[in-house]
Amino acid sequence: MKKIKIIIVITLGLTLGCKAQTQEERFNSYNTLIIGTWIAEDDSSNKVIFSSDNKMKVYIDNNLEDTTFYELSLTCNSNSNNSYDVFFKN
After folding, report:
1. Does the predicted model carry a pTM greater than 0.90?
2. Which domain of life is it from (predicted)?
3. Position 83 confidence tier, pLDDT thresholds 50, 70, 90
4. Alpha-helical segments (H) within 1-90
5. Main-chain phi, psi angles of 11, to 5 degrees
6. Which residues are bridge partners to 67 per DSSP?
């Protein structure tokens, strides 16, 4: 599951990394773009569904393995370097 989260964060970073956006615009874009079904490129039996009510459901072989809440944030504990970083928390 950790691998899926890393893939998602990297994909989002590459998708929006080339646009000149303010931190708030980028954050709002991430909140919108994360919604939907994400399937692991290297193993299509691993799927994560992000909903607009901040629920994350993890499926393996179409079996629900975990349901949790997620949050996108501009800080992570004391980490924030004002370089448009967006952190994924669950």
Report:
1. no
2. Bacteria
3. low
4. 2-16, 23-33
5. -60, -45
6. 57
